[in-house]
Amino acid sequence: MGVERIQTLAFSNQLKELPPQFIRPVNERPENTKAVEGVTVPVISLSQPHHHLLVREVAEAASQWGFFLLTNHGISPWLFKLLQEVGEQFFALPQKEKEAYANDPSNGNFEGYGTKMTKNLEEKVEWVDYFFHIMAPSSKVNYDKWPKNPPSYREVTEKYNKEMLRLTNEVLELLSEGLELEKKTLKSSLGDEKIELEMKINMYPPCPQPELALGVEPHTDMSALTLLVSNEVSGLQIWKDNKWVAVDYLQNAIFVHIGDQLEILSNGKYKSVLHRSLVNKECKRMSWAVFVVPPHEVVIGPLPPLFNDHDPPKFSIKTYAEYRHCKFNKLPQ
Ligand SMILES: O=C(O)CCC(=O)C(=O)O
Ligand SMILES: [Fe+2]
Q1: Which of 35, 50, 214, 244 is buried most, with the most CB atoms less than 10 Å from its CB?
Q2: Would you state the pLDDT for residue 118?
Q3: Of 243, 217, 242, 246, whose CA–CA distance to 233 is shortest?
């Protein structure tokens, strides 16, 4: 049997009520866990002329928030527009055409078109469909898994991939310097040129009762970094000082999340940010998350300069494959 897609459900006979599998327990519902007012997330401009100030801003945001918005990063607004267009065009294809890309997460491979399924009745379903594929390195790319329609999907996404590689280098250098490490340290600890970039397009259709549902439930990303852009609809919230903080849409800004692998390498000096996304009654929200991850065989643990007798290692050492296995299966790390 096929998977029930959120997009199909959302548009079937003008759904008025949220089906029970999407209704969150009372203590998780957005209506009972509202974001605080008046708190704004850090915005960092890459055109800051004083390098040492830029390093400090990045390091402070990464350690206090695990999150920041990046502006003046050199990516053309046109490229964001094209990326958005090809993603929207894919999701607007007839359902049958999209199903040809249906993924099979049961073997640990998420590439393709997907909707998360639940393992038991208590577990709730997220109000989101996605498309996931590897973008880099080229040796790991399987173009058969990429949308062939619209035909420009590949060209646009390859352009975006180049920009993401450039920005990954730049941000990892700043983050290394912020830990008083040599510039190349974090990148080389993550596999250097073997670092992988994964694209996940999240598609959140309008939801009849958004106050009871979640688009993506609270989680930290298992990546090292996540570089995300969205359409003009806000919805992302991050956890800071025991409260949810809403991240307002900022045109052409890139949302940078510190993920688990950087928290481990930095021995907890940088924080992997807990975040969730909300959905919307009238508007469709889409986001494009690029996960920067080490290849499976790379061993990740706190970097030796960052622990000592007084400040011992806070995390165990394991390969990224092992880490991933534990996280997927909710096993202790
Ligand atoms: O859509 C968003 O803003 C967040 C998505 C997200 O957290 C994820 O895909 O890991
Ligand atoms: Fe995430």
Answers
A1: 214
A2: 73
A3: 246
User: What gap in Å lies between CA 224 and CA 332, rounded to an integer?
Assistant: 19
Give the domain CATH number at 31: 2.60.120.330
The answer for residues whose C-beta is within 8 angstroms of residue 153's C-beta and 6 or more apart is: 86, 89, 90, 146, 147
Q: Is 1 among the domain residues?
A: no
Distance CA 214, CA 218 (A): 9
For tokens 């100030």, the residue is: 53
Closest to 241 in 3D by CA, of 64, 52, 25: 64
**What lines the ligand 1 site, CB under 6 Å?**
200, 202, 216, 221, 228, 230, 235-236, 275, 277, 287, 289
Does position 217 have pLDDT exceeding 60, yes or no? yes
Q: Do the domain assignments include residue 231? A: yes
Report, as an integer, the average pLDDT of 93-107: 93
Domain, as residue range, for 113:
6-328
**Structure confidence by residue, pLDDT tens digits, 275-329:** 999 999 999 999 999 999 999 999 999 999 999 999 999 999 999 999 999 998 8
Report the number of distinct structural domains present in the chain: 1
**Could you give the 3-state DSSP secondary structure of residue 230?**
strand
Any domain includes 294? yes
Segment 64-86 shows an average pLDDT of 98
Contact 56, 178 (CB under 8 A): yes
CA 50 to ligand 2 centroid distance, Å: 31
